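If you are new to this repository, start here. Below is one unmodified record pulled from the training split, so you can see the exact layout before writing a loader.
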Amino acid sequence: MEVHNVTADAATFTCNAYLALGERTTLVDAGAMDGVVDVIREHTDSLDAVVLTHQHGDHVEQLDAVLDAFDAPLYAYGEHSRRDHAIDDGDDLLVGDETCEVVYTPGHAEDHVSLVSEKSLFSGDVVVHDDGAFDDGSFGRTDYPGQSRERLIESIHTLLERMGDGVEHMYSGHGSVFHGDVREVVERALERAERREPKYPDE
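And here is the target side for that same chain:
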């Protein structure tokens, strides 16, 4: 499956927004980068779906612009005024060329979901490969109101239970795309989260 991070060149803070090309061209998260619509159009003239991992501002700031430009249906777990399809834990979604299972993964956000196929993981912010706090296995922050480290830990356990051993591509909301043994990266993120230490001790 061909996947592009369409916010990779952003000059301001944003999530990674991923364009998965294929049988069902899908944008996972819209990001907060001005001009993201133009970058998407460099790769495709149409979108079959937009899927949200969660609705924090850095993931949805450009959502209206994307939906207006491409008239694509919106799939989201949490309620949204422009949601066309509610998704729930255990649902299957075709993303690009891969069938992904929706895994409900709260903790960083109450409406957070991850998408898992036989080969790929779109993890949003629940786990990332590297983000400035940890390299090679980090986890979403849980120090803001409404967040919970305990729920995040439970979510990472659930993610590991639902992931097969063949997952080798990790597309996370922040940091770098990872290709390799994704399970090992997620397990390291879990170990660090379970220490209950602050993710950013200087803050």
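Two things worth knowing about this chain: The first helix runs from residue 36 to 41. The chain has one domain: 2-194.
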